[in-house]
Amino acid sequence: MAHIPRTSALTRSLTRSLASLNHAPPAGKSPTAIVMLNMGGPSTVPETYDFLRNLFSDGDLIPLPFQSVLAPLIARRRTPQIEQQYTDIGGGSPILRYTNIQGERMAALLDELSPETAPHKHYVAFRYARPLTDETARQMKEDGVKRAVAFTQYPQYSCSTTGSSLNELYRRGKAGEVGDVEWSVIDRWGTHSGFVEAVAQNIERALAKFPESTRSDVVLLFSAHSLPMSVVNRGDPYVLEVSASVSAVMDRLGHSNPYRLVWQSQVGPSAWMGMQTGEALKGLARLGRKQVVLVPIAFTSDHIETLYELDLEYAKEAKEHGVDVHRAESLNDSPVFIRALADLAAAHLKEVSLGRAGYASTQMGLRCPGCTNATCGQQKAWFARGGR
Ligand SMILES: C=CC1=C(C)c2cc3[nH]c(cc4nc(cc5[nH]c(cc1n2)c(C)c5CCC(=O)O)C(CCC(=O)O)=C4C)c(C)c3C=C
Ligand SMILES: [Fe+2]
Ligand SMILES: [Fe+2]
């Protein structure tokens, strides 16, 4: 059975002191790296095939027999349909643009909030689109980074999303591609008050589009990317954590409206977490609940799931059923959200440097009870030691 070593606060702080003695760069030269982990998306339509090939090659997301042979074939078959979707949303995914805006503004705020660890520099490490982790690793090495925070941009943890990004980072780090870096991890933050506030404000703006007389009857339909039941059933924490986000947002809104959490973007024939968002909209229409705000809750910038699936597909279907739907905006360049990212990173840097928190959270140390992926265990142990 895999064993995850527990490191005491004293050992951690000794390791850190030794590390900084051995590797301290000349003062003020080496930036504290905040590495923003996400799946990425094709910035332009012709990048779609590479994105899909990388995605279907990831055994942590979609385990396939003969993966290296099947992945390019499935990607090739799926490319025309997905290319059309990216064309319809304006010619590509905006995720890199928004991640860079969020990262630059977060780093500037961090320099004020945490002058001891300044200067801060954001790096983007995408799992399936450029800049991929290997490219980012090379850049960090070139910049002489000695201290880095792996900051997932998925608010809620799933082994298929954040877990996959951390496994990739672990492989690159272990192979020495990033250089000699002290790592720590922000692995989930779905109930952070700044995140909750930013989502709540966007919901309030969407609610304001309905007549005041019926506003409190509007149904808030929180929609998250679904998960295959095989992943849910091995003990993945994502469904619980998305539910916790919804609950926190509803508390902040004072339970002003009725709400449900539903699931979107199932792919392939296997069983996925439900109820599906599209079915929920139709069901609400049948029940006469014809005013709805759709709320993306598990992804922080726009992507095909919001711009295509929610705005084009579901909104059209809903209109056909006489439902008046508005979507809460994605967080994108929300200043409240960017401040939340900076607050999270500043608190994390402080807690770790004071030895009040480990390099990775207690919750991250626990593998899913049904996990059979050996890399997950190695990755967790590696990050718990600060990437050493
Ligand atoms: C929190 C968000 C996401 C989870 C959880 C997630 C799990 C998951 N996804 C697939 C398969 C596919 N996802 C695809 C695209 C895609 N997935 C997410 C987010 C989550 N996925 C996003 C934001 C996107 C779109 C990216 C964009 O730029 O718009 C795709 C490719 C598109 C398609 O072919 O339909 C696949 C395939 C699985 C199997 C899974 C859980 C195991
Ligand atoms: Fe796992
Ligand atoms: Fe997905």
Summarize the structure.
The protein has 388 residues and is α/β, with parallel strands linked by helices. The chain has helices at 9-23, 48-56, 67-88, 95-113, 133-142, 162-174, 193-207, 229-232, 238-252, 277-286, 304-320, 335-353, 374-384, and strands spanning 32-38, 120-126, 147-152, 182-186, 219-225, 259-264, 291-296, 324-327.
Descriptive notes:
With 388 residues, this protein is of the alpha/beta class. The protein has 2 domains: 180 residues, 3-Layer(aba) Sandwich (Rossmann fold), CATH 3.40.50; 135 residues, Rossmann fold (3-Layer(aba) Sandwich). Helix content is 46%, strand content 12%. Strands 2-1-3-4 form a 4-stranded parallel β-sheet, sandwiched between helices. The protein has a 4-stranded parallel β-sheet with strand order 6-5-7-8, with helices on both faces. Helix 11 links the parallel strand 7 and strand 8. The protein binds the ligand C=CC1=C(C)c2cc3[nH]c(cc4nc(cc5[nH]c(cc1n2)c(C)c5CCC(=O)O)C(CCC(=O)O)=C4C)c(C)c3C=C and fe (ii) ion (2 copies). One fe (ii) ion binds next to loops.
Strands of the biggest beta sheet: in what spatial order? 2-1-3-4
Q: Give the CATH topology of the largest domain.
A: Rossmann fold
Q: Which whole number gives the mean pLDDT? A: 92
Structural class: alpha/beta
Count of distinct structural domains: 2
What compounds are bound to the protein? the ligand C=CC1=C(C)c2cc3[nH]c(cc4nc(cc5[nH]c(cc1n2)c(C)c5CCC(=O)O)C(CCC(=O)O)=C4C)c(C)c3C=C, fe (ii) ion
Distance between the termini: 22 Å
How many DSSP helices?
13
Task: Give the overall form.
Answer: globular
Low-confidence stretches: 1-26
Radius of gyration: 21 Å
SSE succession: HEHHHEHEHEHEHHEHEHEHH
Would you report the number of β strands? 8
Taking the sheet with the most strands, its summary is: 4 strands, parallel
Any idea what the CATH architecture of the largest domain is? 3-Layer(aba) Sandwich
Helix content: 40-55%
Reading off the top of the CATH hierarchy, the class of the largest domain is best stated as: Alpha Beta
> Beta-strand level of the residues, as a percent range?
5-15%
